[in-house]
Design a protein that fits this description.
Number of helices: 0
Helix content: under 10%
Shape: globular
Distance between the termini: 40 Å
Largest sheet: 7 strands, mixed
Radius of gyration: 13 Å
Oligomer: single chain
Length: 115
Amino acid sequence: QVQLVESGGGLVQPGESLRLSCAASGIIFRASIMGWYRQASGKEREMVASISIGGGTSYADSVQGRFTISRDNAKNTVDLQMNSLKYEDTAVYYCRSRFGGDSYWGQGTLVTVSS
Protein backbone atom coordinates (compact mmCIF):
# COMPACT_ATOMS: atom_id res chain seq x y z
CA GLN A 1 0.00 0.00 0.00
CA VAL A 2 1.40 3.35 -1.06
CA GLN A 3 1.45 6.10 1.51
CA LEU A 4 2.78 9.62 1.25
CA VAL A 5 2.38 11.45 4.53
CA GLU A 6 3.11 15.14 4.72
CA SER A 7 3.91 17.00 7.92
CA GLY A 8 5.21 20.36 9.04
CA GLY A 9 2.48 22.70 7.92
CA GLY A 10 1.17 25.47 10.11
CA LEU A 11 0.62 29.15 10.63
CA VAL A 12 3.58 31.51 10.18
CA GLN A 13 4.08 35.21 9.70
CA PRO A 14 5.44 36.75 6.50
CA GLY A 15 9.21 36.44 6.32
CA GLU A 16 9.36 33.37 8.52
CA SER A 17 10.43 29.86 7.58
CA LEU A 18 8.80 26.46 7.62
CA ARG A 19 10.01 22.99 6.73
CA LEU A 20 7.69 20.40 5.25
CA SER A 21 8.46 16.72 5.20
CA CYS A 22 6.95 13.84 3.27
CA ALA A 23 7.45 10.26 4.40
CA ALA A 24 6.90 7.67 1.69
CA SER A 25 6.20 3.97 1.91
CA GLY A 26 5.11 1.33 -0.53
CA ILE A 27 7.05 2.83 -3.43
CA ILE A 28 10.54 2.37 -4.84
CA PHE A 29 11.55 5.71 -3.40
CA ARG A 30 15.09 5.89 -4.76
CA ALA A 31 13.75 5.38 -8.28
CA SER A 32 10.91 7.88 -7.96
CA ILE A 33 10.80 11.49 -8.97
CA MET A 34 9.50 13.38 -5.97
CA GLY A 35 7.79 16.72 -5.91
CA TRP A 36 5.91 19.27 -3.90
CA TYR A 37 2.79 20.90 -5.26
CA ARG A 38 0.39 23.39 -3.77
CA GLN A 39 -3.16 24.48 -4.22
CA ALA A 40 -4.42 27.78 -2.96
CA SER A 41 -8.09 28.39 -2.38
CA GLY A 42 -9.86 28.91 -5.67
CA LYS A 43 -6.80 28.11 -7.74
CA GLU A 44 -5.46 25.14 -9.61
CA ARG A 45 -2.80 22.89 -8.17
CA GLU A 46 0.68 23.95 -9.23
CA MET A 47 4.15 22.47 -9.06
CA VAL A 48 6.37 24.08 -6.46
CA ALA A 49 9.52 21.99 -6.61
CA SER A 50 10.69 18.63 -7.85
CA ILE A 51 13.76 16.48 -7.39
CA SER A 52 14.95 13.76 -9.72
CA ILE A 53 16.36 10.39 -8.77
CA GLY A 54 19.81 11.86 -9.30
CA GLY A 55 19.13 14.86 -7.09
CA GLY A 56 18.53 17.42 -9.80
CA THR A 57 16.02 20.05 -8.76
CA SER A 58 13.59 22.41 -10.39
CA TYR A 59 11.45 25.15 -8.93
CA ALA A 60 8.52 27.33 -9.81
CA ASP A 61 9.63 30.87 -10.58
CA SER A 62 7.59 32.15 -7.66
CA VAL A 63 9.65 30.19 -5.10
CA GLN A 64 13.07 30.12 -6.77
CA GLY A 65 15.69 31.25 -4.29
CA ARG A 66 13.38 30.92 -1.30
CA PHE A 67 12.47 27.22 -1.25
CA THR A 68 14.77 24.21 -1.27
CA ILE A 69 13.75 20.64 -1.95
CA SER A 70 15.85 17.72 -0.74
CA ARG A 71 15.52 13.97 -0.50
CA ASP A 72 16.89 11.28 1.78
CA ASN A 73 16.81 7.93 0.03
CA ALA A 74 17.83 6.12 3.21
CA LYS A 75 14.81 7.47 5.09
CA ASN A 76 12.40 7.63 2.13
CA THR A 77 11.68 11.26 2.83
CA VAL A 78 11.53 14.42 0.77
CA ASP A 79 11.62 17.80 2.46
CA LEU A 80 10.76 21.31 1.41
CA GLN A 81 12.54 24.11 3.23
CA MET A 82 10.56 27.30 2.79
CA ASN A 83 12.18 30.59 3.69
CA SER A 84 11.02 34.19 3.42
CA LEU A 85 7.43 33.08 3.25
CA LYS A 86 4.90 35.40 1.66
CA TYR A 87 1.14 35.77 1.96
CA GLU A 88 0.80 34.24 -1.49
CA ASP A 89 2.50 31.04 -0.33
CA THR A 90 -0.62 30.18 1.63
CA ALA A 91 -1.95 26.89 0.29
CA VAL A 92 -2.33 23.20 0.90
CA TYR A 93 0.98 21.57 0.03
CA TYR A 94 1.01 18.09 -1.45
CA CYS A 95 3.77 15.55 -1.90
CA ARG A 96 3.84 13.58 -5.14
CA SER A 97 5.82 10.60 -6.34
CA ARG A 98 6.26 9.49 -9.93
CA PHE A 99 7.69 6.21 -11.15
CA GLY A 100 7.13 5.14 -14.71
CA GLY A 101 3.47 5.68 -15.38
CA ASP A 102 2.49 5.62 -11.73
CA SER A 103 1.80 8.77 -9.74
CA TYR A 104 0.79 9.06 -6.12
CA TRP A 105 -0.26 11.96 -3.93
CA GLY A 106 -0.30 12.64 -0.24
CA GLN A 107 -3.26 14.10 1.60
CA GLY A 108 -1.69 17.53 1.92
CA THR A 109 -0.62 19.83 4.71
CA LEU A 110 -1.89 23.37 5.14
CA VAL A 111 0.51 26.29 5.20
CA THR A 112 -0.93 29.63 6.19
CA VAL A 113 1.11 32.81 6.00
CA SER A 114 -0.60 35.56 7.92
CA SER A 115 0.21 38.40 10.24
